[in-house]
Amino acid sequence: MDTKIIILDENNIDEKLIKSAGDAIRNGKLVAFPTETVYGLGANALDEEAVKNIYIAKGRPSDNPLIVHISKVEDVDLVAKEVPAVAREIMDKYWPGPITIILPKRPEIPYVTSGGLESVGVRLPSEEIARKVIDAATVPVAAPSANLSGKPSPTNVERVIEDLQDRVDYIIGGKSSVIGLESTVIDCTIYPPCILRPGAITLEDLKNIDENIYMDKGIESNNTNEGIKPKAPGMKYRHYAPKAAVKIVSGNANKVIEEISSILEREEKLGKKIGIIATDETINKYSTSIVISLGSRKNLYEIGKNIFESLRKLDDLEVDMILCEGIEEKGYGVAIMNRLKKAATFDIIEVY
Prior knowledge:
By secondary structure, this protein is an alpha/beta fold. It has two domains: 4-220, Alpha-Beta Complex (DHBP synthase); 245-351, Threonylcarbamoyl-AMP synthase, C-terminal domain (Rossmann fold, 3-Layer(aba) Sandwich), CATH 3.40.50. Helix content is 31%, strand content 19%. The protein has helices at 15-26, 48-58, 76-79, 85-94, 111-114, 128-137, 157-164, 203-207, 253-269, 300-316, 333-343, and strands at residues 4-7, 31-33, 40-44, 67-69, 99-104, 119-123, 141-142, 170-173, 184-187, 194-197, 214-215, 245-251, 274-278, 291-293, 321-325, 348-351. The longest helix has 17 residues, at 253-269. The radius of gyration is 20 Å and the shape is globular. Residues 15-201 form the YrdC-like domain. This is Threonylcarbamoyl-AMP synthase.
């Protein structure tokens, strides 16, 4: 497949190119485009064959549901047959934005899109290019992250090209994703609503809408839920993983540095090439040049933005192992650690 790559200027968007991308989606083609969370790979959510091609292009398990993207709030009624009052409140406050709401699906949404479920996740992104492409398509757009399945999600167009060139019809590039972690996913087919994937809109944020909203306990588990259909992306399969093995060291800051340094010394003596993911506060504490800072612990949103690209950079350097400092699991730190734990397949050392 000959992929057409389009790089758009966010300050001067070429409407003709947007229209051609929207037409392509409506007619069954695959189009990758930027969103504020990560880059997405879009297809007509109503077209079974187009959606099947997403799974093929990504190498994605077919029971892993896709999120359906819309360009304006009222289009939720094209996707969902029912929108509970609490879901409307969430939409009013956080759409457009990085939250996916699971709702009962309309019959028009094929089961290949919903992962065989009677429910479907719906999102209205805030990224302007994304909304323009979806609007030009004139259909709801199914769009998982625009990467090969299991790899760290792409936050810039270069990584999309690296993974999907010659696998999809169009790749649209804009600026790097401003959030860098996938959307919060909340299940509103039940009451009280349940968060199935943490993201930039936190449990604490959502409790301001309804204090009964809670986090699925399975988020903290390495349970693969064999035989159970996942209701949201990332619940069942290995996700966000680089080629190298990832080990997280979490706990007391000084002891984390000591433990990582000890593992580093031991593994280097065995001839291993080790990469370290640290923070601004600790980047100078390690005796290796292969160390990347996610940012300051005072700014968790900066850290979240840099996780996936840091994992990919260490893959570029062909390290054998990645040692990563843990982050306090509070507020947005829950989402950050969710992605890191998935990348590490829950290989965690706690030191206190």
